[in-house]
Amino acid sequence: MNLQENQANQQVTAVISHYIRPGRESGYEEWLQGISQVARQFEGHNGVTILRPKPGSKEEYVIILRFDKYKNLCQWMRSPERKEWIERAQPLIDKPENVQILTGLEALVSLPKTASAPPPKYKTAFVTWIGVFLCASILGYFLGPLVANLPFLLRQAIMTGITVLLLAYVVMPRLTRLFYKWLHSS
Fold first, then answer.
1. Statement to judge: residues 87 and 132 lie in one domain
2. Of the given ranges (100-114, 141-155, 163-177), which has the lowest mean pLDDT?
3. Average pLDDT of 124-150?
4. What is the Cα–Cα distance from 27 to 88, expressed in whole angstroms?
5. Residue 73 located in a structural domain
6. Contact of 124 with 180, CB cutoff 8 Å
7. Fewer CB atoms inside 10 Å of the end CB: C or N, the chain?
8. What is the rounded average pLDDT of the residues 109-122?
9. Pairing between strand 60-67 and 12-19?
């Protein structure tokens, strides 16, 4: 498998931002629920995270949409269903949506407003190391005794599989928020 094929089969993340018109927040929230339900029905959908604006800040919502591979993300992004939902959003948003596509480790540590400029690789590696260390240590302590009698490769497959899931959906989003200022300092 060449590099392009390997990248095409990696998990891919779309970071989509919308600026909401004042007073249209509740309509946008309903719209978010609807489009999220439709997106979940598409092949390869791996979850969605919605970052809502902090009180008193600009009304920017950020949708972090994950698919198992680029092809499946493209099918959703180009679908008639999504086009219809985006048309429904027009009265709710101030300007056209901004879409950033991320693959690899930078998708784990990139947050809105920085998606086009991922953090330096050493920062990405350090925060990822912290996440892997935490997951591996905690899983080793609690799950290790339960899988100790399994064959080595099966035990490793279980432990690394759970570690990757925890990193992608639980640990890295929290570490990214915790280290946000350091990751994205100039």
1. no
2. 100-114
3. 91
4. 10
5. yes
6. no
7. C
8. 58
9. antiparallel
> Predicted confidence band at 114 (pLDDT cuts at 50, 70, 90)?
very low
Angstrom distance (rounded) from CA 143 to CA 161 = 13
Confidence of residue 55 (pLDDT cuts 50, 70, 90): confident
User: Looking at the whole model, is its pTM more than 0.85?
Assistant: no
User: Are 48 and 66 within 8 A, CB to CB?
Assistant: yes
Whether the CB-CB separation of 55 and 25 falls below 8 Å is answered with no
- Tokens 């979940």 belong to 40
Instruction: Identify whether residues 86 and 11 lie together within a single domain.
Output: yes
Please give, one letter per residue, the 3-state secondary structure of 44-75. CEEEEEEECCCCCCCCEEEEEEEECCHHHHHH
Cross-strand bridge partners of residue 66: 13, 47
Domain end: 78, 104, 130, which one? 104
Indicate whether 25 and 80 sit together in one domain.
yes
70-99 per-position pLDDT tens digit: 899 999 999 999 999 999 999 999 888 888
> What is the residue whose two structure tokens read 């300092």?
185
Residue 165's domain spans which residues? 121-183
3-state DSSP: the chain helix, strand, coil percent, rounded to 5? 55, 15, 30
Same domain membership, residue 22 and residue 92: yes
Q: What is the pLDDT of residue 116?
A: 41
